[in-house]
What does this fold into?
Amino acid sequence: MDVRQKLKDCGIGITKPRVAILEYLMKQCTHPTVDDIYQALVSEVPTLSRTTVYNVVKLFAEHGLVNTLGIDDRNVCVDGDTTPHGHFFCKECGRIIDVPLTELSAGGFDCDGNMVTEVHLYYKGVCSECMSKRETDESRSPR
Amino acid sequence: MDVRQKLKDCGIGITKPRVAILEYLMKQCTHPTVDDIYQALVSEVPTLSRTTVYNVVKLFAEHGLVNTLGIDDRNVCVDGDTTPHGHFFCKECGRIIDVPLTELSAGGFDCDGNMVTEVHLYYKGVCSECMSKRETDESRSPR
DNA sequence: GAGAAAATTTGTAATAATTACAATTTTTCA
DNA sequence: TGAAAAATTGTAATTATTACAAATTTTCTC
It folds into this structure.
């Protein structure tokens, strides 16, 4: 679906930064930070400011167009894919990998009287690439 | 089990701040922030500094004595209960409530070749208390 | 138990993500 | 087209966390 239409459907006004940011987020699978988004788009939208990226991401999140992840201690990461899935965070390289999850609910249910609107499943550990690197390094300099 | 013994078992030296912090965390069910811990213990350990709390919490987390939660955007919360369970975060009052979860793994498994060492399940929404407050407020000032 | 060596803590200063805010610019709509 | 409303921008403020060197505490040996 067209990005502009998506914004209209949410009652969000159409502006250059918003269109650029949503378009960018929808085609990413890397869960960029606010700074990543800023760096990626500043050449396309030269007047862009980091504050705008913060504002727009917050607005999008409030309307359910994106999810913000707290999986990385350093900074918030933004996910343009709002279908239910979990995330794996590699503590060595910082990469975030999607984890398919059929049994995970999308929220909107009741848990002991508390209303759940968001579900976050975070795995943390060492990704396969960093695991192979570790093994290579060990065989090179054994100890 | 005695807190000192726990520290010894992990190969961690016994010091006043460490004993006080671990004792405090083991009897809390509120998932305190670093600042909460500092505020709670500074009268008991007058020389305590926030930096020490950061250092000690990090050390404990590395040894699996506590878990650090990234559920609250503002700051890290510390959980002295390391048995597998999830968490509910109330977006209105900020309270964190334990969610019992039998089917959730404790980590140490493989996910698409990635080694998972930590599992975090976060629910976010509005807790039952804040829900009742909302209803009361609405009936008082309808609109 | 005293004293030296090692480990730990402490306070301050630095870092970095995020937010507040007022001025400017863009968009909307009559 | 032009005024009103909405959004963006840049700067400055805020705040959690980290770096680091000096001071203190703990440990270990005699």
